[in-house]
Fold each of these.
Amino acid sequence: MSSCFQTLSDYGLRSIGYGERLLPKADITLCEQFVLIGSGMIWNIYFAVLALLLGFFFATVLALGKNSNLFPFSAPCRLFIFIFRGSPLFIQFFFAYDLFVLLPRLGFDIDLGFLVVTVETRWLTKAWLGALMVLFFNTSAYAGEIFYGALRAVPSQDLESADAFGFTGIKKFRRIIWPTMLRLAWPSYTNEAIFMFHATTLVFFTGFPAWQQKGDAIYYASYLADKTFNPFVPYPIVGLYFILLTLLIIGLFGLINRRLNKHLPTNERKRLRFNKYNLIR
Amino acid sequence: MFSYCVDPKTLEGLMWLSCYVTTAKHMSFYFSFLVVMGLLSLAAPLAMAFGFAGATASRSTFRIIRSLGKGYLAMIRGIPDIVFFLFIPIALDQAFEYLRHKVLCSDVTEPIRQGNDFVVCAAAKLPLNTASEWVHDIYGFSLALLAFGFVFGAFAGNVLSGAMAAVPKSQIETGEAYGFSQSQIFRRILIPQMWIYALPGLSNLWMILIKATPLLFLLGIEDIVYWAKELGGIKTGVYEYPHPDWRAWYFGVLMIFYLSLTYLSQSVLDKISTRLSQGQATMAGKAG
């Protein structure tokens, strides 16, 4: 058992570059598998949490844009949502990575007169920024479509009541439209959040390289499956971690759902149940 | 391809391009688009079969079958599909070889798992070492196909079981009142009525399936992603058609391919949906 604590301190933060550099090669123990894959989960959580947090706001903007009557606003939002929802995330990663690799060669010199500054675009070819951007755009597009659907479904009586009470502009949006939109969209949005966590497993299998073998959970799982030639241990471990994570998301989003439904009479409150025959993604 | 392509170094402009896009490797690239379509047309019915079995099992009156079915439908919500895509082909491969080893080489007493190795006798290898290249290709593709069927079967099972639950209870009770047996109710009342409820979910699933096809690359199959990487990479002067890093262009082409595929599918599915909701007692039916 004490050796497992040793393993934990060696490999616990391996995925972000702390602790033992060399990965285990032979006689890999169960403990090492659990710790290394768990360490990789840091990346999955990092990608998904940041993409979802940032994407939430951008998605609201996209939904409002798509709903706008003004063509210059609605057209780009529609196009953005179409492109990111209509093509595979897998291809988006490859496309973005190769685009980012080309960027510096296109030239980004800024001439300040007394010196020339070259804008650093190489960060974009690193997973922590480049892949995060792709995931951010992707989840924004999916959530934007969900929010757009909910926005169209806000009951007209609510809007009329808002008008009757003299709510206008920002106030009407913030107090009436936005909360209702969120309440209607929430079950689908929970689904999207779960899918987003699952989508983070694609990052290190696409163009973005795992620098110094700092990879995510599935990167280590496939490494271990390769080394031990036994898929029956590492992949179920990844599965276990993700099941726990999914339950956590459902619990967390359920709490928010309760708050969004708080004002409704008890018999009209919707519990967070998945619309089974209408998977959204 | 063309007669003037003999010495590509002397060519320029459109002539060069016309020779470049008709090389043997590009032909393999175009063929891999057909592989994607083939996968789609085989995986969809397979997934429906898996899904139907899963949904039916989850409604079974036997507890063991029911919990197996429910577990199958539930696990896809918790575990990323990529885990299954990586796990199933290698697990199946080992399972097949293990069984063949037990049957064909029963005289070998050494254990199959020796430390970090998985050792089966030569006769149990799948495909056999002596098999030709295309047998390996077909075998790899079949394993991938099974993985797709399994994963998307679980998704489809969720959709179908939801649709079965959505059929009004009074319909089932009417069947019972007329003295239908359980299997008659299932075949004559439940199944014909559930499709309209299943349609939105199944259309959505079709789109997810289209967008999952590039994952073939993860399974080591020479699919469109493989060829895009291969052809787009930097080609130095030693190649017949030298060019800089063109991968972004190739993946751009793939983006356009998928965008048109999903756009086309969406418009067809919208038509079907309008058609099927005609005369139904729903908002869409009344509006139309």
Amino acid sequence: MQGTMKRSTGDKIFDTFIYIFMAIVAIVTLYPFLNVLAISFNDSVDTVRGGLTIYPREFTLKNYETIFGFDGLLVGFKNSVLRTVIGTAVGVLSASMMAYTLSRPDFQSRRWMSVGFALTMYFTGGLIPGFLLMKNLGLMGTFSVYIIPALLSVWNVFVVRSYIDGLPYALQESAKIDGANDWTIFWKVILPLCQPVLATIALFIAVSHWNAWFDTYLFNNRNPENTTLQYELMKVLQSTQSGNNYRDPNAQQAIASVSPESIKMAITIVVTIPILMVYPFLQKYFVKGMTLGAVKS
Amino acid sequence: MKPLTEDAQVVGSTNKKNRFWFRAFQQRYLYMMSLPFVIWIFIFSYVPVWGWLTAFQNYKPKNGIFDQKWVGLDNFIELFQDERFYIVLRNTLAMSTMGLIVSFTIPVIFALLLNEMRGQFFKRSVQTISYLPHFVSWVVVAGLVTKMLSTDGGAVNQLLMYLNIIDTPIQFMAKGEWFWGIVTLSDLWKEMGWNSIIFLAAMSGIDPELYEASTVDGAGRFRKMWHITLPGIRTTFMVLFILSIGHLVSIGFEKQFLLGNPLVSDYSEVLDLYALKYGIQLSRYSYGTAIGIFNSVVSILLVFIANGIYKRVTKESII
């Protein structure tokens, strides 16, 4: 019964256990990132000696200078940024437009459209039919293959729609009485009110665009002008794992002076940094979106 | 809405068809905002299902889909006669089951412990850190895992050597029988924090009066965790768990593709990779599609089975 005022010994031991456990979780999560960061800033000859932990022994920027000399990497960076920016803008706008029309109770085609969209969450054509479709549509080897097939996420449509359903309908009615048409209501009334949910889906879309590599592998592996950063990293990582070399002639030369190990680590950091930088600021939106989606399902 | 119905009634006196088009004209902006996406989803989600027909053909890309040689179930017969298919199926089921078990136990324990933490600052920091790997791509995670497990300077080998558990570094990535475990643990590392969010949210929805009442009754901390917190998240847990069962065969292939190498391919190849290898790399589109169909059919069956269980469970939990 001493409970609320004073903590028992068992309680204290348990608390200590939790703190130690959580500290281990934090270390295990962060250590790989810090280790790779240290290697990426460490002199590549020194790295071979081993034993690096979380700080560089012989600080150098040479690894980064080398990788920024790779053509593939610069093009990849440009394309990754482009697809993230365009893909997010287009994705948010299309999801909210579709969500708004599906949220209008008086829209005459609302029912069959909702069903048609919802059904697609339960089946997919699969890898090969999808691949053949892209081929037949002439999207192979284009930049559009990153944007058009991923234009809309049905999941996001329903998340935004449930948010709009929670807004008072009277707002739309009064705008209508003031003579606003449906587009104006959407643009001037609904969109500004949806900002929190739009921020959430924007972040999810942006992260998935930034992290995507498989579409480059599938559709643009013979088009170096459309490569992405993740795909370049994938190629570098796979190359020494399976024994053959990174095929970029520039890279061959660079690898002679800086070890492949250091190159890999530096590229890993370049690919990861944008996410690490925005992540802490956006965390609350991610968490909100996660619980929002879960409540819906 | 009201003025619209009045208008509609006036026009409705002519005939039904006109009324439909009048309404459609009134809602023209809504159509402009939605029809492009309806066309889009038809092309990108419904048309590929037609592509399933290729599984019953000997598909050659130079002809149209209706201008192919039909071979009936030949592709499926070949699939079921391929020994490799059973190895691949075993790998898929093994990794998905291991993943399912791990992702529904450890994150719950993690959430439970987080929920018990008193220091808000430390708690929030641990949460922020643990969600982080979720946002990093599998390409990066595969790179980190390979680095950590490498024989020259990998942290895991260094630690094991330091603790005198082993004398020589272990080649983790070259041991086939360890591959399933490595994939499962990598997945755990990446998603543990993220998967715990939903359980934490469920825990925060538990009525605090329950805890107060049990304190008055003299219940200790562990009894509260066992009798209040865990039952409090049971519904969330069951719903998520049953939904995941439907995804047992469609676990994706990113991890296996990126972490695997030729040395461990007997353990790393999963159904989607098998489809990718035959369907795209070897251009046997029809065979690849047949694998995809097998995958989808099993997924749908599992969803129905899981759904049946779910109905019974919810009935029970209502009582």
Amino acid sequence: MKEKLSREEVLHVANLARIKLTEGEIEKYQVELKKLLTDVEKINEVEGYDEDILIACWDEFARLRKDEVGNMLDPKQVVENAPHHAGNYIEVPVVIGESEGA
Amino acid sequence: MKYLNKGIEEIHELLKSKIIKPIDLVEEAFENIEKNQELNAYITLNKEEALKTAKELEDKEVDNLLFGLPIALKDNIVTKDLKTTCASHILENFIPLYDATVVEKIKAKNMIIIGKTNMDEFAMGSSSRTSYFGAPKNPWDKNKICGGSSGGSAATIAARDVLFALGSDTGGSIRQPASYTGIVGMKPTYGRISRYGLVAFASSLDQMGPMTKNVYENAVLLNALVGKDEKDLTSANKEEEDFTRWIGQDIKGMKIAIPNFLMGDVVSSEVKGKIEEVISLLKEKGATVDYIDIKYLENAMTLYQIIAMGEASSNLARFDGIRYGFQAENVENIEDVYLETRGQGFGDEVKRRIMVGSYLLSGENAKVYYHKALSIRDDMKKEFQKAFQNYDLIIGPTSVTTAYDLSDPMDDPRKSFMDDVLVIPVNMAGLPGMNIPVGFDKNHMPIGMQIIGNYFEEAKMYQLGSFIEKELNLDLTPGGEK
């Protein structure tokens, strides 16, 4: 088994995770991510896979809330918590336009 | 005069009879924290507000045991108008707009929030060394780690700065630092305490819990934290109970199991020896202790890696630099805001886990890894249930060794998982687990024992924990009695 991921593999998972890596990090993670991914492969050695899954330990409490408007945060405060804002809006850089395909 | 090294009942009486005021306790807490500044236990202190609250309490009736007592909160529990960083650059200046449900409960008891404690970034780690603000130090030996991820909470309790702290435990993050610092740390049953306002790491595993210098005070604090919450639909609807009710009772006839896995070769002989001494004590006092096998425990770390990293990648997707927190500068379009903000804002451990988690949940992998892990986890829960048909409680060591050096290498990404190999199974099954100190190694570093209960049987755990605590009667103040 190879001891590290390829550069492309690291860039692929970084893209899935929406994380920009520096050159140094790419190299480091080629080795480190491989170790973790080797660990999780051990799940294949465990027998007993069936449809019964455990999400929360007590299903009896699983419930849904009524879809009602409750106490909300003050929209003004919420907007002001954003790094960039103007009036009632959160400011963001270009979404569509110049840098299409980014 | 020092008060914060006394028991809470004595302090309560002093407050009630107006011999002392809450502000005396708050001032003492800040003096302690100042004196122990080198421990780096806190990220943010709440001094001005705490003094103000203490003053306001002078006009109120001292109506409960927790009234006027200072408490420290792990910095992943959101506090209105008080910075909450998760020990991350990405939330370095984040000020929440609301209180977590536990914070509301603490305030309802008129406890006083003293500050926010240091931790591993987003609770990912086992030594608190992944904190953006530098690692906290162990009060027993400042060259050692205090464990993690709730390392700052553990350090401040061990140092006797304050009486109470909250931690969170996703894969041992309350119990393991408690074992390294010689304090009591309880991770209650999943669902006992509302997670609303706990910054999510792995939602199906996360649970907050009390960290204290002794068992009784731990149970008293837990009393105040539990309950169903409409804001967390996984919170359990259980009848109110007093977790202290069996403290002081005999353990004669109690049936205790010790899984062979928890006493395996990875556990140091010093730790194992101390646990064996406790086993002898329990037998002598009329309990039965049997070694048993619990299937799947050896797989718990793999399950944890898959479930915790998978859920983390999903939960941490919210940190995009748009709505709150840090945003990278000099970026031209929105995609780059995400990529650069997350690239610059998250530390190493967090990035690794999010990347692996994203891979584990992508496309068909979700079935191969995550879904299978949930299935084996269900099998593991059933195995625990079988054991609890025959036994009241399960015990074992909390950590494989005592606290190691702060300067130990951090280059193995598996290390933080391996440190927690004995505490992870409890989170997998959603069971309650508690650390109690049971002795010291040859360097006088604390050794901890884990008590595991069946669902919602925290009171029984406190019964056994307090019994052992009383029998051993250890001096758990670093540097001797203060």
Amino acid sequence: MNKLIDFVITSIKVSLTGSRKYYAWLASLLIMVLFGAYSYYYQLKYGLIITDIRDQVSWGSYIANFTFLVGVAAAAVMIVLPAYLYNYKEFKHITIFGELMAVGALTMCLSFVLVDLGRIDRMFHLLPFVGTPNWPQSMLTWDVIVLNGYLFLNLLIPGYLLYKAYVREKPRKWIYIFILISIPWAVSIHTVTAFLYGGLAARPFWNTAIMAPRFLASAFTAGPALMIIILQIVRRYTCIGQPGCKLVVTDRALFTLAHIALISMLVNLFFLGSEIYTVAYAATSHLAPLKYLFFGLEHNGVHYAKLQPYMWAAITMEIIAALLLLFPRTRKNFTTLNIACIFAFLGIWTEKGMGLIIPGFIPTPIGEIWEYYPTLMEIMITLAVWALGFLVYTLLLKVAIAIEAEEVVHPSAKDKEMPEAH
Amino acid sequence: MVDESRRDFLKKAAAGATAAVIPFANVRIPVIDVTLEEFLQKHYKEMSEEEKQRVIERLKKEYREKYGIDATIKTTPPKEGVVWGYALNIQKCIGCRRCVYACVRENNQSRANPKEPWRGEIQWIRVLEFEKFEIHPGEKGKDFRTKFGEVLAGINLEESEHYYHPEKVPEKDKFYMPIQCQQCERPPCVKVCPTKATWKEPDGIIVVDYNWCIGCRFCIAACPYWARRFNWSDPYIPREEINPKMHYLGNRIRMRGVVEKCTFCIQRTREGRYPACVEACPVGARKFGNLLDPESDVRKVLEKKRVFRLKEELGTQPKFFYFMD
């Protein structure tokens, strides 16, 4: 128990000490969080009126970002699965970065849901015993369960493994059971999130069986793309490359991630194409949201097309990313690889964030066209949640890197070798 | 079994906790501005009669202090053997929107605040305007429309106009279709609610416990009839416009951050009166009654007129019927 307390204290110390650049990074994130907190104070005080969400478009930036980030969280499985099921060595060294990314993403997901609530003071109505959760009927109760369960798994697994590394002990077998559970659990979080929308017959744009598969495909593109960028940053700002450094992030690991992103992107584009074909060829009244998304809608001589430029930009970025990832020469060149990753990430963020949530509401089920565009305060809250997620991720990464690089060790284990499993 | 007793125990513990905090019941939590008592209030269906009365007394006091009105807030339960149904004559409707405004006055919806122009009035009824089309068979290059002549053969909601403002209604080549909560027998909004804050009453009315709703707005997304509204800010109602005859599940004044909707004027219909929209209609296009009573207005419409329901293919089974003579 004492060792555990030492672990926690050391972790806090390590996460709060660093170079000047590190402090600057933390400070800038913190400032963004504070700006958002200031806006959120107004939202609490005056209600969601400070956003541009209204009865016509009743979810906006918050839920759009939530949806996208559930995918990023789920994508950790793309590292865990090859590492543990196929014993892929290159990924063993980086699983922890993936799992902690899931924690950062989940922090954002849960925060986005919370800031979207009209009555956060009544949040506990969702909980068993003190509240009345509508389980199993409501998909949102399922989402609460799977998201919190996934957060628990991704805190437990890296937490336990880091602790064991800190005290130089071999991890016990039972942790592998949790690692195995975390694999289907990752799939479940994004499936349930897709079912939130897919189950609504009132919204033809969402009411399609391709929703969950498409969500997973796009998640397994955006997640690895972000991972590739982050791992390069880790390589740059840690001891990697210096003699005696115990951290390992190989080029091969990055290229395998790029391969995963490529295949997922192609599958994602295929799913998107299937969806567009089915809706467009049948050309029922269900076509309107899709038309709005790509070309805008006409009503009384007014052209409504606020999302149109973003959507074309997204599709263009996705196709460029797919092409850059497709050819080995551009995939294995870090400049083009990074462009591909950034494009893939931004493209999917647009396509399955705002590009998926907003047109679901346009036109309304009774035919009104009403456009949504986030307000400044809403954008500030959105950015703050992103900053909060990155803040959490940064602090966790800092600890993980220090322990994995064997820079910190429990005093009692100083002379011990790092056990094999690490 | 174990689960039940545990639940029971926790409930009692929670009730005990409520009793224990009574000395601090009026302490206000800052920013979100709710009292501790309100914060710890139970789900409507889980409250005893005593607890309901306590809550009602609190609400009355609140309205007295805030608006200077003496309200009555009833909890009249549904009558046995009653399932409410509604029928609207789409051929008669002249699009005057008197039902819309009567509904707002009756049900204490938030009004447009002249000082805050970005805040509009909440309306539960939306009247859609459609163009009539003549049949022009054989005319080259023209799409054959789904609605033509005096006969309405179909409705494409996406071709509707929501914000029509002519000098006089009805306009010659237009017809009108009011849409409000269809009180579905299989309501998707109830299914998706994560906290059971909205449910179908035994008389078929979908109600909301405004003190239990967490404001996630999943029900708004799930409703195929766009019948639910959200309180984006604190409601604004001038004192003299408040209707003091209230029902707990109906027209009592709401708070910011919760969803509301048409209840067929539960505060009226459960006392044997017609909904406000039925009374306000100048052409008698609106019929209301007990679906289980063969002699009711609605049943007669169902038997004698040509009837359709909106979006029947979705399987929501509305108890709101549109008809033609």
